Amino acid sequence: MTSRFDEVDYFNSYDLVPDPHPYFEHLRSQGPVTKLPVYNVVAVTGYQEGVEVYWNHDNFSSIVTAKGPFPPLPFTPDPEDISAQLEAHRPTMPYGSMLVAMDRPQHTRMRKLMMGLLTQKRLRENEGFMHQLAERLIDKFVEAGRVEVIGDYSHPFATLAIADLLGLPEEAHEQILPLVGGLPGRLGGDDDMSSNPLAQVGMLFYGYIQDRRANPRDDVMSILANVTYPEGDLPDLETITGLAGLLFGAGQDTTVRLIAAMLKTLGENPELQERVRNDRELIPNFIEETLRLDGPTKAVFRLARRRAKVGDVEVPPGGLVMLAQAAMNRDPRKFENPNVFDVERENARENLSFGSGIHVCPGAPLARVEAKLALNKLLDRVRDIRIDETVHGPADARRYDYEPNYTQRALRSINLTFSKA
Prior knowledge:
Blueprint: H1 21-29, E1 33-35, E2 41-44, H2 47-55, E3 60-61, H3 83-89, H4 106-111, H5 120-141, E4 146-148, H6 149-165, H7 173-176, H8 198-214, H9 220-226, H10 237-268, H11 270-278, H12 283-294, E5 300-304, E6 308-310, E7 313-315, E8 320-323, H13 325-328, H14 364-381, E9 382-387, H15 389-392, E10 415-420
Parallel strand pairs: 2-8
Antiparallel strand pairs: 1-2, 3-5, 4-10, 5-8, 6-7, 9-10
């Protein structure tokens, strides 16, 4: 009998948004690499096959990482090698000139500008601010016995933590809180980028970076403003502003969704919640299992530069590869009992939620530090965290609202009840 998934258009199916995993399991049943029925996309659900594509930077370009098949390529692919065509058309392709979509050697040169910014030392220096921030936010809702996690905790926490880390002065914090950009990969088409709030974030950074370049101080923003290429020359202000915006987005968005997913997991699992509460040494692995089973990214994309093989499937020049991270994180060849949340799983940190290769998420270390601190602080202050059934329904009929997106898995809200500790 034909599966209901055989003809599904993954990129336009709202039915797959609440729970994409049965669909990914269907793809896996056909093999670790399989062709989709739409847009000539090859989907990878196998862990090892995906890692090989991540690291094969010679044969696969990241230029389409955020958008996949939309819009279609603005050229007819050369039958042998499209590398020259990609570079010629890069400025016109969505996100094509951003670091996340760059290829070597340009990516290597740009990434080196960030080497001194998100260091372990700098993260430790930022922790004092994060401790105080978490306490202030919890103070606002702890007496109420309920909270909408994203609006009242994870979003302001992640946003202000990365703002502080990047050196935005406190007078800018209130300005930056409401500025949240749309996620690429929206079903039905992305929002008009001309009104994207992240453009306002960029303008805010531009002004401060311009000032710190002219009048450097002993702060992170001055380091960012005056960082140089390996050759010693200063990048233009637009380049540095773009990097600041990228770091802001990477450090903010990922953490917002990770904290929301963690608290949803604890709210659904009282026994696990008490276990983690009583043994805080489990929190790092708890974070990794949350990333593995409910991570913020469902899929990213690569474009074949020349004829290449992914698993046993041949991909022509210009062919699109979908790296289904959410599926690779549940590959039974890599993770035993892959659909089970095992807080003591030994290889949990090998999940691919932050990617792999040269494009591994630059905000990953910060997201892990923030998630650990935010969870510890909340467990200190409240007990008996539960899913608010007045909003999300009873345990046998939960209702969660996710962004309609084919690349990202993003809860729109998560409401909890609790008792004060």
